[in-house]
Amino acid sequence: QVQLVESGGGSVQAGGSLRLSCAASAYTSSRKSIGWFRQAPGKEREGVARIFTGSGLTLYADSVKGRFTISQDNAKNTVYLQMNSLKPEDSAMYYCAAAPLYDYSLNPAAYNSWGQGTQVTVSS
């Protein structure tokens, strides 16, 4: 499995920005999808954004479209999540994950490698 380490979380005011990073131990041809997920206390884990490591094709949850951007630097084995116009409802623990298949629906069950998470807190 791929080891994933997230960083970049923190506390910001509403309207602010953060950039999360997900560093992978190695990219292999079996890691076709890298996704960002989040989980707030008492809520289920939800998909935020996904990128195909080969083509760079992206997918976003409706709640973050136009505000978040997922990107990758294959030379650094790192995926980023740029989060702009943050809202209090974006507050959660954010996780990156890797899947050996193409994930077309931000389905957490498709992912078999997970990072430890990084906390994002947005105050109003």
Verbal overview:
The protein is an all-beta fold. 0% of the residues lie in helices and 48% in strands. It is built from no helices and eleven strands. Strands 2, 4, 5, 6, 9, 10 and 11 form a seven-stranded mixed sheet that branches. The chain has a four-stranded antiparallel sheet with strand order 1-3-8-7, with no helix packed on it.
What's a quick, concise take on this entry?
This protein is mainly β and 124 residues long. The protein has no helices and eleven strands.
> What is the mean predicted local confidence, pLDDT?
94
Approximate strand percentage: over 45%
Structural class comes to mainly beta
For the secondary structure, the number of strands is: 11
Number of helices: 0
Distance between the termini: 39 Å
Provide the low-confidence segments as ranges: none
Helix content: under 10%
Task: Summarize this structure as a short list of keywords or feature phrases.
124 residues; mainly beta; 11 strands; 0% helix; 48% strand; globular
